[in-house]
Amino acid sequence: QQPVQSPQAVILREGEDAVINCSSSKALYSVHWYRQKHGEAPVFLMILLKGGEQKGHDKISASFNEKKQQSSLYLTASQLSYSGTYFCGTPPSGAGSYQLTFGKGTKLSVIP
Amino acid sequence: DTGVSQNPRHKITKRGQNVTFRCDPISEHNRLYWYRQTLGQGPEFLTYFQNEAQLEKSRLLSDRFSAERPKGSFSTLEIQRTEQGDSAMYLCASSFSGTGGDGYTFGSGTRLTVV
């Protein structure tokens, strides 16, 4: 079952913050986050493996709420380079499941 | 290592023709995946290999699609009797089966146009 991402699109001015949500009607075992710039391949950002886990690097971080079957990606003090489409991906089941089902993506545009 | 390499970058073919794409993963990665992406959508899983074994195949994948990974190195994806609905970006990705959770490294993709 495809995870649902919200919002579908967001426009930010440089320096503003954004939150992208990824939710599922089924249990979430792990969550991957990727960013894809136009015409390029998706690039891995981070993976969250356990409920309650939070990760981050630079000004991009994420959380994973296993009970709510939801993950959120936080972008703070956005930069022009953050523009792109963000995808979350989740495996269909637990251990031994390595393929991902991706959401439809959230298009983020950062303007000067 | 220069990452995941896919060839060709673009392919235009006539409906009914067969096409084959190649993917060279990162050499240390033992898992290899094929995904398909259409405009405005996230990547859609097609199949994946662990070493040379094809372990999962999407139920949505018709029997016109076949993939191989001989000797656990490069992989090929063949589409027989192409249809216009096969037009998409075909992405290959690889990962390493470590214990810390493994993100994918994607290739730049092969864009297929069926006319």
Oligomer: heterodimer
Q: What value does the average pLDDT of chain A take?
A: 90
| Fraction of residues in H or I helices of chain B | under 10%
Largest sheet of chain B: 7 strands, mixed
Give me the Rg of chain B, rounded.
14 Å
Form type of chain B: globular
Provide the helix percentage of chain A. Answer: under 10%
Structural class of chain B: mainly beta
How many helix segments of chain B?
A: 0
What is the H-and-E element order of chain B? EEEEEEEEEEE
Runs of chain A in which pLDDT lies below 50 for 5 or more consecutive residues are none
Largest interface, C-beta within 8 A: A-B, 23 and 25 residues
- The H/E string of chain A reads EEEEEEEEEEE
Low-confidence stretches of chain B: none
Mean pLDDT across all residues of chain B, rounded? 92
In what range is the share of β-strand residues of chain A?
Answer: over 45%
What's the total number of strands of chain B? 11
Strand content of chain B: over 45%
Q: If helices are DSSP runs of H or I spanning 4 or more residues, what is the number of helices of chain A?
A: 0
Largest sheet of chain A: 6 strands, mixed
Features:
heterodimer; A: 112 residues; B: mainly beta; 4-stranded antiparallel beta sheet
Mind sketching the topology for me?
The complex is a heterodimer of chains A (112) and B (115).
Chain A: E1 4-6, E2 9-13, E3 18-23, E4 31-36, E5 43-48, E6 54-57, E7 60-65, E8 70-75, E9 84-90, E10 101-102, E11 106-111
Chain B: E1 5-7, E2 10-13, E3 19-24, E4 31-37, E5 44-50, E6 53-57, E7 65-68, E8 75-79, E9 88-95, E10 105-106, E11 110-114
Parallel strand pairs in B: 2-11
Antiparallel strand pairs in B: 1-3, 3-8, 4-5, 4-9, 5-6, 7-8, 9-10, 9-11
Structure notes:
The complex is a heterodimer of chains A (112) and B (115). With 112 residues, chain A is mainly β. Chain A has no helices and eleven strands. In chain A, the strands form two sheets. In chain A, strands 2, 4, 5, 9, 10 and 11 form a six-stranded mixed sheet that branches. In chain A, strands 1-3-8-7-6 form a five-stranded antiparallel sheet, with no helix packed on it. Chain A starts with a strand and ends with a strand. The model of chain A has no long low-confidence stretch (mean pLDDT 90). Chain B has 115 residues and is mainly beta. Chain B has strands at 5-7, 10-13, 19-24, 31-37, 44-50, 53-57, 65-68, 75-79, 88-95, 105-106, 110-114. In chain B, strands 2, 4, 5, 6, 9, 10 and 11 form a seven-stranded mixed sheet that branches. Chain B has a four-stranded antiparallel sheet with strand order 1-3-8-7, with no helix packed on it. In chain B, a hairpin with a 2-residue loop joins strand 5 and strand 6. The radius of gyration of chain B is 14 Å and the shape is globular. The mean pLDDT of chain B is 92. Chain A binds chain B through residues 2, 30, 32, 34, 40-47, 49, 87, 89, 98-105, and chain B through 4, 31, 33, 40-45, 48, 50, 55-56, 91, 95, 97, 101-109.
